[in-house]
Model the fold of this input.
Amino acid sequence: MRPRPLPPIVALLLGLTLGAGAAPPADAAPRRLKLVPTTTQTRQWPVDVNGWWGLIDEKGNLNTEPDLDWIGVMVDGQAPAALGGRFGVVDGLGRWRVDPRYEKVDRFSGGYAVFRRNGKAGFLNVAGDEALRPELEDARRFREGFAAVRTAAGCGYLDASMEPVVPPVFAVARSLHQGLGVVAVGVPAAGTATARALERLSGTRLDELIDAGVRAGAADDDPAAGPARLWGCVDKSGRLVWLDRTGRVEAVGDFGDNLAPVRVDGTWGFINRAFQLAIEPQWDEARPFVNGYAAVRRGEKWGYVNPAGRVAIEPRWDEADDFDESLAMVRDGERWGYIDVSGRVAIEPQFSEAEPFFRGRARVNAGWNQRPDAFGYINVAGQIVFDPRHAGPGFVDLRRGGTGEILVNDTFAGPDPFGPGRRSRVVAAPPPRPTPGVGVPPEHLYDGGVSIDHADPAVGTDPASDQMPHD
Done:
């Protein structure tokens, strides 16, 4: 399948007087950068310029000089960042709040950020202190007050006091959604520590919790052992509120809109909060419901269903993501674009890489600068709010096309719009980096669960211990 070429585009620079010089070639690297001071309260997004990372504001203005290996998502004025292959935390002015001394640092969620040191995971608090020293095999972000974690014994949950609310007796533990965390466990033999833990968490005897036919052959105390893996859910009290006693359920995804994807006999449907089938298994693959729609696959194509189980958008896409905001990311051949909830194409598939919308912005790559890592940002109207070709704001309509070129303001003439004491300045762009600084995958590829074997179908490929999770 051949990539679709970008349509011609017309640029209008927002809030700046255009220079009289000719436009640079479309693949030109930035020559000069305008830095606009900001405060740590401003909403900001990470961006790379010639392979070096800084922060931009809502208007696409660069707020920090791009001189870092990588910057992550800004939450409450703090973002994970990397320099020299080590990770720390910076504020909205690019100042280090936590020096780069860790192997990995995730973004903050629920007041804490996962970090890794010497191969182990722990948690930082917003003051930059280690709330939990690195003693975990793996950990996920806090969500709804709990964090899914993995120890040498198995998977469980911590609360915000860093105390175990669910002991590590499971083979899989996923982040909480709508008050429920999906778990899985091997079938334990009666009298083992895992069996006693399941009885204690559920308030039910093992012979009532698991069918006799499923229990046959269980012999040891490994959370992943046994003739089948049983899926279930824990609630916010730490109680095991459901366990598939029949062993027929092969995988369970996260709850959304009071439904969760479930795989039975190789096909996917959805269960409700009573853990009964609400939508019969009929799909080859299914994602959780988000904002009233769930992406489903039949054969090679993806579409969407509504909570009633009716097809809302016919399967026609090679890949489809969630409606995280007003648009969902879809792939047609080798190019990504975005659709609205009616199934209408809102932004034509044209990007070699793309990410879901977050706070009204989506990070995309259209092969700009002829670099695989040259990303810009668009808004939900399909306009470029940060163009890596000149490292500045340019509102460019990607939907209707045009006849012009990207224009760059080389003079930055005119009064400073930010008033006295907030003067912007012009600096030289960093030289293009020959290779990316660090290998951090896009946020939407992170998983929301921990697993002993990293191969559970509802957990996905699992980014393993050296990568951080997506909510």
Remarks:
- The first helix runs from residue 193 to 202.
